[in-house]
Structure to design on (431 residues):
């Protein structure tokens, strides 16, 4: 019997104990940095996500193949103007992308979100997160709260946890060439930031003896030689960039000092703007373009054909074609994050679908094939007394090109994201 089924049977026969356990976990979440204020805190479920050694090897293989393709895209963009023309970037952004990073890795940190079928081991890509990649602390705290989970504590299997905070700091410091006496600035538009997590990283850097501060990207001063924090008046040697590219480009005037210091290469920027090549939603179309595919092996092309959802610019013509196929499509802004402005037809009535479809035409949207996620049974004892089927999204963290951990999210709606009834659960690998 699978361990998830054993847990289900235990929950059914120990209901009051399980409900009390779930309430304790929720209380700890609400009184931790996973609570951003008010009703905005991480939701979870009672049964953790268990993967096997075979799953681990599968994820590692997916990461290695995908990251190799990413590296080829970045190299081609640098060297081939015809490849640059495939991306809808301004001259200012193109200039930033073409800046050579101060380290060897192409993308220091990213999360490859996939729809992974736990039975067949097949998958489809959902999206690639290279700007502001987050939730590492969410993973850490939910693993910590397993000690409050009555079902888990009653039947603890032999397992391993892929730790994501210290391992990211290790990867980060490798890209600093282990320079000593550096001051690290963790930079974002703080009103948009996953702020509690930024302060966790600030604290963990400091525990290692590394000077570090969280600072708003607009609170930096450039004197032509040094980038200075207006908050502490310290020189910023290395930036851990959590500010997403779109927010930066939309506010270039207010981040001018940061922008100029990066252009003048007076600060080490982790990660450099070449990550935007993968983060932007046009990447699916670029990867299937024959000009781009001239850089890939036959095996890589087959890999992409098998695992990339069909993706089209949302034009009037495309809108007419998918008008009566709402359950087969999802609409996404080309350059966004946190699922802002995303619509899955399966969640909408036909009338609602037609409105968002035609309102979004020619507004820099894509229409993407809707992938039906793998569903697993779980329970939310705080709010329900029945088991439900939840859609799964599996996020593969990648540090300096290496598979480094998993972020497991579930939802009972068509979109798996915080604003759409998302639940996050601990991820364990069975020995």
């Amino acid at each position: 019997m699978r361990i998830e089924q054993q847990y289900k049977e235990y929950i059914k026969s120990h209901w009051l104990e399980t409900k009390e356990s779930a309430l304790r976990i929720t209380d700890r979440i609400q009184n931790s940095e996973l609570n951003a204020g008010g009703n905005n805190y991480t939701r979870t479920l009672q049964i953790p996500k268990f993967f096997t050694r075979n799953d681990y090897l599968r994820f590692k293989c997916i990461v290695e193949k995908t990251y190799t393709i990413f590296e080829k895209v970045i190299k081609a963009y640098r060297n081939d103007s015809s490849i640059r023309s495939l991306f809808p970037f301004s001259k200012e952004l193109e200039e930033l992308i073409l800046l050579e990073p101060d380290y060897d890795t192409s993308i220091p940190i990213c999360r490859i979100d996939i729809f992974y079928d736990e039975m067949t081991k097949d998958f489809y890509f959902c999206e690639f997160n290279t700007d502001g990649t987050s939730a590492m602390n969410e993973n850490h705290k939910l693993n910590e709260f397993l000690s409050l989970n009555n079902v888990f504590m009653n039947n603890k299997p032999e397992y391993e946890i892929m730790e994501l905070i210290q391992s990211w700091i290790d990867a980060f410091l490798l890209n600093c060439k282990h320079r000593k006496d550096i001051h690290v600035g963790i930079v974002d538009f703080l009103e948009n930031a996953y702020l509690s997590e930024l302060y966790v990283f600030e604290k963990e850097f400091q525990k290692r003896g590394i000077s570090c501060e969280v600072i708003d990207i607009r609170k930096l001063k450039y004197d032509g030689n040094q980038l200075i924090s207006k908050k502490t008046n310290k020189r910023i040697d290395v930036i851990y960039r959590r500010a997403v590219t779109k927010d930066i480009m939309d506010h270039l005037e207010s981040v001018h000092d940061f922008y100029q210091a990066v252009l003048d290469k007076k600060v080490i920027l982790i990660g450099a703007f070449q990550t935007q090549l993968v983060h932007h939603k046009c990447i699916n179309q670029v990867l299937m373009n024959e000009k781009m595919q001239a850089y890939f092996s036959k095996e890589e092309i087959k890999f992409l054909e098998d695992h990339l959802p069909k993706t089209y610019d949302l034009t009037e013509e495309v809108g007419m074609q998918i008008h009566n196929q709402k359950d087969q499509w999802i609409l996404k802004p080309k350059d966004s994050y946190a699922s802002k402005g995303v619509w899955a037809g399966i969640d909408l009535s036909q009338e609602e679908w037609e409105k968002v479809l035609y309102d979004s035409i020619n507004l820099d949207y894509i229409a993407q094939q809707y992938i039906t996620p793998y569903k697993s049974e779980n329970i939310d004892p705080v709010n329900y007394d029945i088991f439900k089927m939840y859609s799964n999204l599996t996020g593969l963290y990648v540090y300096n090109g290496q598979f480094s951990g998993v972020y497991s999210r579930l939802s009972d709606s068509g979109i798996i994201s915080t604003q759409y009834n998302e639940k996050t659960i601990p991820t364990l690998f069975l020995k």
Summary: The domain at 313-370 is CATH 3.30.1490 (Dna Ligase; domain 1). The two ends are 16 Å apart (CA to CA).
